[in-house]
Every structure is written in C-alpha cells, then in structure tokens.
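Schema walk-through. Below, the input block comes first and the output block second. Nothing else is stored per chain. Lengths vary across the set, and this one has 144 residues.
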Amino acid sequence: MPTPSMEDYLENIYKLIEQKGYARVSDIAEALEVHPSSVTKMVQKLDQSKYLVYEKYRGLVLTPKGRKIGKRLLDRHTLLEEFLRIIGVDEERIYDDVEGIEHHLSWDSITNIEYLVEYFQKNPDRLEEFLALKEAEEVEDVNS
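--- output ---
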C-alpha cells in the first residue's frame, strides 16, 4: 500500500491525466506546491513500486495498478468533500479538512461514509432534520 505522500502524488497524477490527458513533472509540482526535484524523486519511487512508468524527459504513464489506486484515491477525496459539504462544514474549510483526514480513515470508514452520503441523498428529509438539530445546538452553544 502506498504511503500518504505517495497517495497524494497518485491522486494528483490521476486527476491531471483525466483532465489534460497527461501529467508532466512541472504540472505535478504546481498542483502539489512542491519543487520539481521532489516530484522527480517521488515519481522514481512510484515507478519502482510499479504504480507508473517513468522515462526521464519523456513523461510518465500510470500502470493499471496506478490507475486503479489513483481513481480510488480521487473518489475518496471527492466523497469526503461531499460528506463535509452535506453536513454543513464551511466551504472554505472543506479542502483543508479533507486533506487532514483522508489518509487517516480506514477504507471501512470511507465505505460507511459513502453509505451515509447515499442515505442523506435518498432521504433529504432526514438531512433537513440533522441540519435543524445542528443549527439548534449551535444557537444553544452561543446562548450559553
């Protein structure tokens, strides 16, 4: 299994390839806000671990294993953003919160969050009840 840092790279490489059709070292460095030399080192590790094929000056291609994990990681990120949005987390905090928690949740927890998101989507009245409860609690906390 990849490390959290490897996961960040795989997720971003997968996303870049989906958006642009390719991922260059400079694109990855910009997306992750790191130096290109750091990207090169990590891409070499990912190549050794068979997540991608990297040829210096020619670019990189995700292997089937890398594509599968990259998609799964991007789906996890998207699900957590959606979950936090549904439960009323401030939009400005969502990205940082997801970055802070995504590597620390088990896949079992992710699956259960997925069920909960699906439940709220299929039962909007339950979501309204939850949000009303949350709002009432927040008002009570302010008044205390």
